[in-house]
């Protein structure tokens, strides 16, 4: 499957995005043009404004990851049983120390998907986690991934993280930072077990998809 990579470069605190293609994709430009307007629209949606030079690279990185998390939710379908009712908010959760430092709340403020608004909860221990549709596990909390996976196996929770090999270790979406480029991998097998449907539009943007292809 051909995919578009979104490259992030932080030059003097200014976050910039561009589309890049693999050598094979350059040879297949005609096929890429036929990939559909939907993918182009997603690329446009994931283009962010330049950050102030006063911000650190780390701060800019998590501002962008917060924006990714918002857009991920637009391309994931949860079963009805994952929510209390049709107007219940879509809840983002973090565990342990919050690497976003408020950026996630800022990104989601005033936004909604259909009738669902967003809320953010922060937990310290895995046994406290409840009511989440998206759970972010920072690299510093990697040790918590096994008990979280065990505790959430009967729930439809999109588990996202940025520790090394996160998706391969059972997480659902793992961020990668390669030479100032933010990319992500998707573990499709894990999302299917959680009864989550991942749009083919999102799969097309992943660097790697683990498991059989699918989506809508």
Describe the structure.
This protein is of the alpha/beta class. It has a single domain, classed as Rossmann fold (3-Layer(aba) Sandwich). It is 27% helix and 27% strand. The strands form three sheets. An eight-stranded mixed beta sheet has the order 5-6-4-7-8-9-10-12. It has a two-stranded antiparallel sheet with strand order 1-2. The chain is globular, with a radius of gyration of 17 Å. Residues 1-56 have low confidence and may be disordered.
- What Rg, in angstroms, do the CA atoms define? 17 Å
Global geometry: globular
The level 1 CATH classification is Alpha Beta
What percentage of amino acids are in beta strands? 25-35%
For the secondary structure, the number of strands is 12
Please describe the biggest sheet, giving its number of strands, its sense, and whether it closes into a barrel.
8 strands, mixed
Portion in helices: 25-40%
- Terminus-to-terminus distance: 15 Å
What sequence of helices (H) and strands (E) makes up the elements? EEHHHHEEHEEEHEEEHEHE
CATH architecture type: 3-Layer(aba) Sandwich
**Broad structural category:** alpha/beta
Number of domains: 1
Mean pLDDT: 80
Helix count from the secondary structure assignment: 8
